[in-house]
Design brief:
The chain has about 400 residues and is α/β, with parallel strands linked by helices. It has 2 domains: about 250 residues; about 140 residues. Helix content is about 25%, strand content about 30%. The protein is built from 8 helices and 16 strands. The strands form 2 sheets. Strands 11-10-9-8-16-15-14-13-12 form a 9-stranded antiparallel β-sheet, with no helix packed on it. The chain has a 7-stranded mixed β-sheet with strand order 1-4-3-2-5-6-7, with helices on both faces. Strand 14 and strand 15 form a beta hairpin. Helix 7 runs parallel beside helix 8. The chain is globular. It starts with a helix and ends in a 5-residue tail after the last strand.
Length: about 400
Amino acid sequence: MKYYPAILGFLYSLTFFYSAHAAVSISQNCGKPAPIRQTIILLDSAVATAENKKQWLNTILDIADALKKPSTSLLPYERLNLFVLDRQSEDIASYFTGCSANISDESLSELKQQDSFIDTLLGTDSQSIVDGYKEKFYKGMVLALGQVNQQIKTFDHNEGSFENSLLRLRNSVKLSDGIPRVFLITDLNKITNKKFNNKEDAGRAGIELGKTVGIDFSRAEMYVINLGQPNPILQTYLDGFLLASKAYTHGARNNGIPKVDDAPVQKIILSGRVQYGDKTLWPVQIRVAIDSGGNLVNSWISIAIHKSEDSPFRGKYLCNKLKTECTIEGDGTLLGQAWNPSTNKEMFSDEFPWAGFRYIQIGIKNDTGNVKIFQPGLFTVNSNEKNNGDGKKTTFNWDFEVNILENTDF
């Protein structure tokens, strides 16, 4: 069913002409039920050229789960969107939106039990229907890519602002479609004209630009596919820019799809208030996304101090046998230190969310929880030592209560 060599050959050999495009929409599988995740493909017009057509075409078809052996799979009914970042118009154009026709073996088996002999004879059995949905989805994507192909001559491949072309994305990521996973296909050497001496300077500049521009990826799991020459310094710059735009780079690769995280199977949204900095109680929201192995994937904590500061974290989700009490144990790799532009030294400062602290622990019982954010060995936000009544050092941490929010997107 997958892979259409004749159609792909047609795409590869197309000559280019200009015609207005209309986004292809395949909505027959949407909302049954609404999946936990959505996938977004962002194709930078800077790399949508005739010279590397085979690269970006195959990459998109691979992400769309349309090749014989895809590098990643869409979840059953997962929404997929394809956008082109048009540098010239500094806009974002939709070319495809649809929901995957993938279905679990268990669900397909249940449907097959309802098939009759007549269904099989007439080709209206469950397997035939599912295969028909898949073919329509894949052909819709191929049609969309044909339209991208036709627009190539209208794209500006060298000029125009990368970050400004992303601004319109703020209205395109809808959390009601699921937790966002984004694949950015670009050329690292064309995202900025700035020059940096080292990764730290690049990362800091990327964060500052991201804060200024104000793009909102809605706490996305980001994968960067670089179709240009490798450039580790500019990758760090892009990582910083994306983090300040509420996206964390989970993987990056030259000319290929990076290894991707396992899909979430459960999400928990928590909300509360914490005393932060002064005596003000600031609102906090937490998204815990969990894969089938109990690992945290695309999980974030957000604190709204005048404006939202969002930090990713990793760890494990552990429950007792009855699942009446659960604990989320951060692994100490991200959180506040995700904002540290240095690649070789820890830094703790009020400059970072949570002063750069790495560790988070959340205990959940019934519909409430307790959150503790801490850093072993540090004693205050400013790293000054304090003494309690018996002369021993007192470790500083944030400790606050949260509630589970039902039917909430975050």
